[in-house]
TrEMBL record:
Superkingdom classification of source: Bacteria
Stored InterPro entries: PGA_PgaD
Protein's recorded name: Hemin storage protein
Keywords for the protein's UniProt record, in alphabetical order: Membrane, Transmembrane, Transmembrane helix
Residue spans crossing the bilayer: 12-36, 56-79
Keyword presence, tRNA-binding: no
Membrane as UniProt keyword: yes
GO biological process, one term: cell adhesion involved in single-species biofilm formation
Organism encoding this protein: Trabulsiella odontotermitis
Pfam families: PgaD
Length: 143
C-alpha cells in the first residue's frame, strides 16, 4: 500500500507539544540517573560499586517487566488471530440502486454513474446532503 487510508493533518503546535514533552521526559530520566547514580558516587566515593549495581538491578527489573508486558501483548495478539481467523458475521444484503438513491436523495441514474466511476469527489452542503459529484474518468490503463 503506497498511501495510508486515513490522512491526519500534523500542525506545528501539536508537533511542538510532542517535542517539548519528549524533551521533558528525557530530562527527567537523566535527572533520575544523576540523582541515583552519579550523585551517590560523587558524594560517597568510598561506597564502592553499590550505586552502580543498584542502578543496574533496577534497570534489569524494568527490562524484565517490559519483556513480560510485551510477551502478554504478543500472546493476546496471537489469541485474537486464532479466535477471529474465520468470519462469523453474515454479509448484509446489498442495497438496490433505488434504495441508495432514496437514502442520499439523488437520482437512480446518478447512482449507476457513481457505481461505474473508479474515482470521484463528493461535495456536501452544510446539512450533510450531497451538493455535487465530480466524476474523474480514467483511461484504459487506470490513469
Amino acid at each position: 500500500m503506497k498511501q495510508p487510508l486515513i490522512f491526519t493533518e500534523r500542525r506545528l503546535l501539536p508537533r511542538l507539544i510532542d517535542i517539548l514533552l519528549t524533551l521533558i521526559a528525557w530530562a527527567g530520566f537523566l535527572w533520575l540517573i544523576y540523582i541515583g547514580m552519579v550523585k551517590a558516587i560523587i558524594d560517597q566515593p568510598d561506597m564502592g560499586p553499590r550505586p552502580v549495581a543498584s542502578t543496574i538491578n533496577t534497570l534489569a527489573l524494568y527490562i524484565i517487566i517490559a519483556a513480560l508486558y510485551g510477551g502478554v501483548l504478543i500472546i493476546w495478539a496471537r489469541y485474537n488471530q486464532y479466535r477471529f481467523r474465520t468470519e462469523r458475521r453474515e454479509r448484509r444484503p446489498e442495497l438496490e440502486n433505488d434504495e441508495v438513491a432514496e437514502s442520499f436523495q439523488i437520482t437512480p441514474e446518478l447512482v449507476e454513474e457513481l457505481n461505474k466511476a473508479r474515482v470521484l469527489t463528493v461535495h456536501h452542503n452544510e446539512h450533510g446532503g450531497i451538493k455535487s459529484v465530480d466524476i474523474h474518468h480514467t483511461n484504459a490503463d487506470g490513469q
